[in-house]
Specification:
This protein has 71 residues and is an all-alpha fold. The chain has 3 helices and no strands.
């Protein structure tokens, strides 16, 4: 699956692969220590930048003003 920003897609694939490996090989066997946090942070930063670049953050902000979502 593609990411919101095309340049974020390789980071998403790297994180997804790391997470899926951790989940199946460790988490399901009881090891709950998080892994892949550095990959996730790089991907998150890329997504946040893409959201701002595409002005999705402004659309969300406007939608939240129009519709009061519970906090």
């Amino acid at each position: 699956m593609e990411s919101i920003g095309k340049n974020c897609t390789p980071l998403k694939h790297d994180y997804d692969a790391c997470f899926n490996k951790w989940y199946t090989e460790k988490f399901l066997k009881g090891e709950t220590t998080p892994e892949c946090t550095e990959l996730f942070e790089k991907y998150r930063q890329c997504v946040v930048a893409a959201i701002k670049e595409q002005k999705v953050d402004k659309m969300l902000s406007e939608a939240q003003k129009e519709t009061k979502f519970p906090k």
